[in-house]
Amino acid sequence: MMVQDRVVPKTVPTPPHHTPSRSNNRNFAKRLDFSTWASENSYKILAVFLVIGAVAALFFLRNAGDSAALLCFEQSNSAKSAAHKIHYPQISWSNVAPVRPLGPSVPYSSFKSEKWILVSVSSAPTDALRALTRIKGWQLLAVGNSETPTDWSVKGAIYLSLEQQAQLGFRSVDFLPYSSYVRKSVGYLFAIQHGAKMIFDADDRAEVLGSDLGRHFDTDLVEQKHPVLLQYSHANPNRTVVNPYIHFGQRSVWPRGLPLDHVGDVAHEEFYTEVFGGRQFIQQGLSNGLPDVDAVFYYTRKSSGLESFDIRFDEDAPKVVLPQGMMVPVNSFNTLYHSQAFWGLMLPVSVSSMASDVIRGYWAQRILWEIGGYVAVYPPTIYRMDKVEAYPFSEEKDLHVNVNRLIKFLNSWRSNKRTLFERILHLSYAMAEEGFWSEQDVKMTAAWLQDLLAIGYQQPRLMSLELDRGRAAIGHGDKKEFVPKKLPSVHLGVEETGTVNFEIGNLIRWRKHFGNVVLVMHLGAPVDRTALEWRLLYGRIFKTVIILAEQGSWDLAVEQCPLGHAYKYLPKVFERYSGAEGFLFLQDNMILNYWNLLQADRTKLWITDKVKDSWFTKPKLGNADEWFLKQGEMVAQVVSNFPVHFQTSYKESMGDEDKITFCSSELFYIPGRFVGDFADLVGLVGDLDIHHKIAVPMFFLSMDSPQNFDSDALAKTVYKTKLSPNDTFSSIYTAQAPAVFPMKVQNEVDFVKLVRLMASGDPLLMELV
To answer: Per-residue pLDDT tens for 594-607?
Structure first.
């Protein structure tokens, strides 16, 4: 994960799903009436701050009345769970009006510079930041947010306050959260508008080695004689992402944004190819001291929480470039962009904070191929000190859940749009459709591209895509060997082959097993106190987590669905995720121990048919319970109208037609091959008021014989219908069962208790509390 002056727990988004008008944006006094909004919505603000990875920080933030996590989780899931169709922006590209020139009263309106260093600032100036102003030939631009001190000032730096940003006339400003480093997008546009030909995306705590960017990066691509560079080879045609740290001598370290199932790929390259330079439009530098690592690495690779990392990379290793079809994580605190790639600076607004720049990097790399450009990785260019601060695993959720799928998607994506900007918008729309970000980022992309045109940016021309020539023809230059150094261990006392690798390996296995399974949860507890927490807990494992509740919440991406008819909502989810391997339904009072389900057959139906207190039959006739009697009558009516295959299966499974099957249905699994049948059965029920606990077992018995269920998957579920007054979480819960009922999680405190108990099955969870 990346540690910079982002102050992640303080990220305060624009009120959820509220897009200020441009007129309001320019009238900043109205737009920043945030204290009133916070007061009126305090119950929502308090709800969004559970960060399982830093419970102490959680309570601090809740007391402070902040609203950090909402944008990250609500919007990152809104694309996945929003029922409405995403609208494709219609833009008249040739009619974008220029941005009105700023008057002389606006500071720096006439200033021009070709080389810019850009940072986000949320606190008082650091010595490292002041040093950036002294780098010869470069202009420092600091972008403020609502956390920035009002008197922020550094000699030699241009500072853009929120008020000044609102006056610039950029469409993009309307989509940016108030207290987030993603406001850097305004700064990028400002720099481009004021003559930028290259932009160094930096961190205000990073020290440039030797105070000379030109010594580390290729700043002159036009006049240089295009020296030969090393390029990763396509010896393995299935490899789509690499860990560049191996090339620079640290095979046991991995960058934030690298899919976790690639952590174990520590072998160096058999050979490289040689290619001419000159098109490395995005240049990623490495950081000595504290590199860009994720929370899994940071939490687990220390023998003591008080020790600081001081990791060193090989300064003599040659720079290396990535061919088309192969990607690398790119961050926003040590990266040089040339003008040909300025379009790729836009930071997404609807994903979690620590995922925004990495997702941007993968998105930009894919578009870079369309103009014949590539990313190059350079030896260490900066030094960052590890201040041993809390690292929020939750802020990386969108990485660990989606990044592998994103890389595969980007490699398969194609567009026949006629211009680069049209293809960029096309890709952004496709990524929203796939749930990698929300419709908000589609709108942001449209605004961003129009802003670029409005300030005079000339979009690069398209080139033929090498990717379609076949992997063998990509990077087909001369072969070159380079054996990386093996620099000293960075584990600080943790054995590489010990417990840590075992635990990370488990997480990878669980992700591989359930990574294409959609979890649909129905909440009975207050959604404003638990919805985000469930996403944090299970989002690490499943493809996505859809949250349903009796009362929906647009702010929290919770969809309204009465529990009694929850089964009727599932076809909507099936349609939304047609490529999913299966769908797991779970109520929040049933705790899922996913580590005990690796042997379950994902091609078969699972339900608690072997748990006697959860599944049983009752006679229809002579039943004193009027509810059962009415339900039985409706079941008979529906079954009589079933097609032959459903009716036959149901009657053979029931044996006695005078009985009705009841299942509590807190937990069941539907594989992809049965989703069509399930949807058909929902249609046959129609408007009849058959309860979820009656309909689900009826559907299961109609779709297949119980002999074909994977009944063993959930057979050992702990299911208690009667609890004593002395029962607690610890007396009910066991990590050895596939699931445990009932566990009523009502608030964040309950969640902390639950996570500590579950850590006996998933030890990495302990690093989060």
So the answer is: 999 999 999 999 99
